[in-house]
Amino acid sequence: MEKVAVLGAGSWGTALAMVLADNDHDVRLWTHKQDHANEMNQRRQNEKYLPGVHLPEKIVAYYQLDEAVKDVSTVLVVVPTKAIREVCSSLNKVLDHKVTMIHGTKGIEPGTLKRVSEMMAEELSNDLYNKIVVLSGPSHAEEVSQRHPTTVTASSTNLKEAEKVQDLFINENFRVYTSPDMIGVELGGALKNIIALGAGISDGLGYGDNAKAALMTRGLAEIARLGSSMGANPLTFIGLSGVGDLIVTCTSIHSRNWKAGNLLGKGHDLAEVLDKMGMVVEGVRTTRAAYELSRKQNIEMPITQGLYQILFEDEKPKAVVDQLMTRLRRHEMEDLSSILSNRYSTQSE
Ligand SMILES: NC(=O)C1=CN([C@@H]2O[C@H](COP(=O)(O)OP(=O)(O)OC[C@H]3O[C@@H](n4cnc5c(N)ncnc54)[C@H](O)[C@@H]3O)[C@@H](O)[C@H]2O)C=CC1
Ligand SMILES: O=C(CO)COP(=O)(O)O
Questions:
Q1: What are the residue boundaries of the structural domains of the chain, listed by start?
Q2: Angle 304-307-311 from CA coordinates, rounded to 5°
Q3: Which sites bind NADPH (predicted)?
């Protein structure tokens, strides 16, 4: 059995800590708020982020980061993208040995346009881990904590590290696949949040399933277009961290991105929506990052561009729908053939 530190006690960190505890590992769940750690240890609940769920005894909450990571074999970082650099830079100061380094965060950093593993690598000395592993896929914390069947992908440029993570998490409720395409897995998990905001807006405007299916399908086309231009294997986007996560986030009642979009579609403004949510809505910052990336890579992303206009340029959702529906006529598979003819690599190290 391993000693694992989970850094970030939001809904996802807590649900993943429960999977590890079910697999009999000793889990230290770190939060940066002392009263939050006390509450979890005393009441065996994480009331704000995963209400009504009993925390197994194998999970102990920590407030001091140095104590949380002392002697652990594995560190799982699962804070919002915005907090990745701060948490990893603190981790770099207190971690004094090599660990298996994992993250479960879905985002891209605006400005630098870096993926989460790239941000982590910039903050952590490379003698603290071999290769970073990302764990991603269609997996709402609420359902994982109920032990409902869930499938995810562990991906790393070093497949052996990914297999270690597969061993650590896999059980009869939580099935873990591996993939060497870390770029594709991270981008799929981050970019689907933009489309989920769009799906929520569409529902909020009162449109039906046709509109949502259109957004998801054409959304996937733009994810694959951008992803393959950045070196991802396009086939990754028809896997769990691509279409799988796109489906769950655009259709689940648990999705924060869908919920935020739904409120926007009903006419609420962004500041009010984010205030109401109380949990991270990664799609907002990722829309900014993806919009910047699409310009940098010269990739057409009309849905992302429309979302950017709604979120940051005060455009009305209905005007963006009109804009999308009246674009120049296209061949449906124009995208697909160019993506598949791009060269890409599926090789692990
Ligand atoms: N909730 C879910 O079902 C899933 C979430 N994810 C991803 O996991 C990541 C984390 O999401 P959630 O746990 O859902 O978020 P959340 O909003 O439920 O919780 C975020 C946690 O991070 C902590 N935090 C925020 N800033 C911090 C800082 N500077 N230092 C330390 N801790 C800080 C908060 O106190 C809170 O405990 C996101 O990237 C999300 O997209 C991925 C899969 C499923
Ligand atoms: O990534 C997720 C499910 O796989 C969680 O999505 P939300 O952040 O929209 O809830």
A1: 3-180, 190-341
A2: 140
A3: 11-12, 32-33, 49, 106, 141, 256, 280, 282
